UniProtKB/TrEMBL annotation, chain A:
It comes from Reyranella soli. One of its GO terms (biological process) is transmembrane transport. This is ABC transporter ATP-binding protein. It is found in: Cell inner membrane. It comes from the Bacteria. Its main location: membrane. SMART domains: AAA. Gene3D superfamilies: P-loop containing nucleotide triphosphate hydrolases. It holds the Pfam family oligo_HPY. GO terms for cellular component: plasma membrane. Keywords: ATP-binding, Cell membrane, Membrane, Nucleotide-binding, Transport. InterPro entries: AAA+_ATPase, ABC_Ni/Peptide_Import, ABC_transporter-like_ATP-bd, ABC_transporter-like_CS, Oligopep_ABC_C, P-loop_NTPase. Coiled coil: none annotated. The lineage of its organism: Bacteria, Pseudomonadati, Pseudomonadota, Alphaproteobacteria, Hyphomicrobiales. It is a peripheral membrane protein.
UniProtKB/TrEMBL annotation, chain B:
Keywords: Cell membrane, Membrane, Transmembrane, Transmembrane helix, Transport. The keyword Transport applies. This is Peptide ABC transporter permease. The chain crosses the membrane at residues 101-122, 134-155, 202-221, 256-282, 302-321. It comes from Reyranella soli. Its main location: membrane. Belongs to the binding-protein-dependent transport system permease family. GO terms for cellular component: plasma membrane. InterPro entries: BPD_transp_1_N (IPR045621), MetI-like (IPR000515), MetI-like_sf (IPR035906). Residues 95-321 form the ABC transmembrane type-1 domain.
Length: 329, 336
């Protein structure tokens, strides 16, 4: 599709650690069409946050992009100088909503001070002098009670759900085209989680945004996302429209992950084994040691990506095979 | 806030009483008989006995102590055993000189130490970081008296830029006392010449005191900033487009300074004791010089008074540290 707002292709990121060099992202592909919400799903440690950091240009100093492109509005963010990323992308074109609303805000500054900081550097020039007004409007939109006073308060005076609303408002403050959310509801209780998800969906429609939504919960994906991309140990294994993926998941990892979801699973065993350390990843398809239908070939070559149908990609040559009985819970 | 202040002040009283007991006993157990000293070398035993009675040295210790506490509570620190002048007057004269010296040193140390430590943290393991670390270790290791004398040799004797000793030029004279701080009083009096003279006089002793304090503050600022940089909110602030310099110098620093405030408070106490030596070297007419003189002449009233004043300073600084904490950290403010 040519009208993708963001297109990540063949992205590889490695980091120098005490145990050597780790390929945290090995081959990640991701496409976010304008106006769509795209989910990225994978177990803990699969590299979801790293993907976000790579897009925003905030990888840790010991990490670097080895290969691939991150094309956003026609520019490759992977090659953009750091100062341009800081000036024109973060906080401006791309709004970010963090995972943990309890840790993201600076405890010793007023909420308003913190939200105005982003606006001070990234709001359109014609808004000068009206930043506060705009924030109050936004806080009203995200349903924070008494917005005027909220700006004068400190983070610890808010509940988790309220804080997440503040952070959502902050992400929207400079009229971004893309919103990136890193498991924004994980730290919240179920009811609050539902409210925040509804809010996000409405806001994306209302402000005409696109959104990249990271989660490990297919339930959330089903509720919120138009499309979904499954990532395992730094490799994109499958991407499809949400309905399609949930009903006809092809990759064994995606199928197992879906089968494990509490809404479906009969016993909550989970997928046997665990995500490999990026310092010693398996060769070939990184999932093969845990895969019930793997053969010797899977360990030798990285699987090529096949299209099962339009907009449905899968990185497994054996995706047509059924999983053996007992492999799914 | 007010309640907090009252509570803290009340809590300080037993601590100060304890301090008084301790020092009183210590001073009276020191085997120099103040009556003998007072009476002079040629005095007869009767004369000594007389003095002993007159000053109450013959009463039981607890009685002497009770009388002393009663006097202190009513703002009377007693008369010097020597000059027979009220000790309170001496304290009033010398304390501002010491406080001025310490404030200026701490100001210097803080204004230089915090940015230095922060820069060092920002360039973690870079050249600047190494230089700062070496310099700060050096700053702590150098003995104050040696450093003071080097400063005098260079700036007073060799270059003749700054005066060798004293608090203000003799022919210029002290400004009328309002705060007791010459730097402030001279400005209040509109006497620029007095201000400049005070500044030139305070420069060397203040630098001497400031160097080790600066080293300590820089080290704490460095560690504090390094720690704070690891916090999640720094990642968030970067990801939502705060410029790097704003993150470091405002959002991180405020958090690190909160921890440093406790250190600065402790430093204040350390500086009070270092001031004794520095005042002696620069002939600074402060509480330190007064204390030395009082100890040498066994003027036990003066010694007790100085100890008490230092105790009060410690108590006040502790309360101030908590107040500043409250100002900087809203979560602490809620508990005040
Ligand atoms: N600074 C780092 N140094 C070394 N390894 C790192 C670093 N940051 C991340 N990793 C490793 O990279 C892998 C991916 O981490 P990442 O945080 O992107 O996972 P994630 O999918 O976001 O997980 P979660 O769902 O728990 O947030 C993990 O194995 C992690 O240990
Ligand atoms: Mg993560």
């Amino acid at each position: 599709m040519n009208d993708a707002l963001l297109k990540v292709s063949n992205l590889a990121v490695s980091i120098r650690g005490d145990e050597g060099i780790a390929r945290i992202l090995d081959r990640v592909d991701l496409e976010i069409p304008r106006g769509r919400i795209v989910g990225v799903v994978g177990e803990s440690g699969c590299g979801k946050s790293t993907l976000i950091k790579a897009i925003l240009g905030v990888l840790p100093t010991r990490a670097r992009i080895d290969a691939g492109e991150i094309v956003f509005e026609g520019r490759d963010l992977a090659k953009l100088p750091p100062d341009v990323l800081a000036r024109e992308v973060r906080g401006a074109a791309i709004g970010f909503i963090p995972q943990d609303p309890f840790l993201a805000l600076n405890p010793v500054f007023r909420v308003g001070t913190q939200m105005l900081e982003t606006m001070r550097w990234h709001a359109p020039p014609q808004w000068k002098g009206r930043h506060r007004e705009r924030l109050v409007e936004l806080l009203r939109a995200v349903q924070v009670p008494d917005p005027e006073r909220a700006l004068e308060r400190y983070p610890h005076e808010f509940s988790g759900g309220q804080r997440q609303r503040l952070l959502i408002a902050a992400a929207l403050s400079c009229q971004p085209r893309l919103l990136i959310a890193d498991e924004p509801t994980t730290a919240l209780d179920v009811t609050t989680q539902q409210q925040v998800l509804m809010l996000l969906r409405n806001l994306v429609a209302e402000f005409d945004l696109s959104m990249l939504f990271v989660t490990h919960d297919f339930g959330v994906v089903a509720q919120l996302c138009d499309e979904v991309s499954v990532i395992y140990a730094g490799q994109t294994v499958e991407a499809a429209p949400t309905r399609r993926l949930i009903n006809e998941a092809a990759h064994p990892y995606a199928r197992l992950l879906l089968a494990c979801h509490p809404d479906r699973a009969t016993d909550l065993g989970g997928i046997p084994g665990s995500v490999p350390s990026p310092f010693a990843p398996p060769q070939g398809c990184r999932f093969h040691p845990r895969c019930p239908i793997a053969v010797a070939d899977c360990a030798s070559a990285r699987p090529i990506i096949e299209q099962t149908s339009e907009r449905h990609d899968v990185a497994c040559p054996r995706y047509r095979l059924p999983l053996p009985q007992g492999a799914t819970p | 806030m007010l309640l907090f202040l009252i509570r803290r002040l009340l809590l300080a009283i037993p601590a100060l009483l304890g301090l008084m007991v301790l020092t009183f006993v210590l001073v009276r157990v020191v085997p120099a008989d103040p009556a003998t000293t007072l009476a002079g070398e040629t005095a007869t035993p009767q004369q000594v006995q007389e003095i002993r009675r007159k000053y109450g040295f013959d009463r039981p210790l607890y009685e002497q102590f009770a009388i002393y506490v009663g006097q202190v509570a009513s703002g009377d620190l007693g008369n010097s055993v020597f000059s027979n002048r009220p000790v309170m007057d001496d304290v009033r004269r010398t304390l501002p000189a010491t406080l001025e010296l310490i404030f200026v040193s701490l100001l210097l140390a803080t204004l230089i130490g915090i940015p230095l430590g922060t820069l060092s943290a920002v360039h973690h393991n870079g050249l600047l970081d190494h230089v700062v670390r070496v310099v700060t270790v050096g700053g702590l290791a150098v003995a104050s008296f040696w450093f003071a004398i080097m400063l005098q040799l260079l700036f007073s004797m060799e270059l003749e830029w700054l005066p060798l000793r004293g608090r203000i030029g003799v022919n210029i004279g002290a400004p009328p006392s309002v705060t007791g701080f010459f730097l402030v009083d001279s400005l209040l009096a509109g006497r620029w010449d007095q201000f400049v003279s005070s500044l030139r006089h305070i420069a060397l002793p203040a630098i001497t005191l400031a160097v080790p304090a600066l080293a300590t503050i820089a080290r704490f600022a460095r560690v504090g900033v390094l720690d704070t940089m690891q916090r999640d909110f720094v990642q968030y602030e970067t990801a939502v487009g705060y410029p790097r310099h704003r993150i470091v110098w405002i959002y991180v620093l405020r958090n690190s300074v909160i921890a440093a405030v406790t250190q600065i408070g402790l430093l204040f106490g350390a500086l009070v004791s270092s001031a004794v030596a520095v005042e002696a070297i620069f002939d600074w007419p402060g509480l330190g010089s007064y204390a030395v003189q009082a100890i040498l002449s066994s003027d036990y009233k003066a010694v007790l008074a100085v100890t008490l004043v230092v105790g009060v300073i410690y108590a006040v600084i502790n309360i101030l540290v908590d107040l500043v904490h409250g100002l900087l950290d809203p979560r602490v403010a809620e508990q005040l």
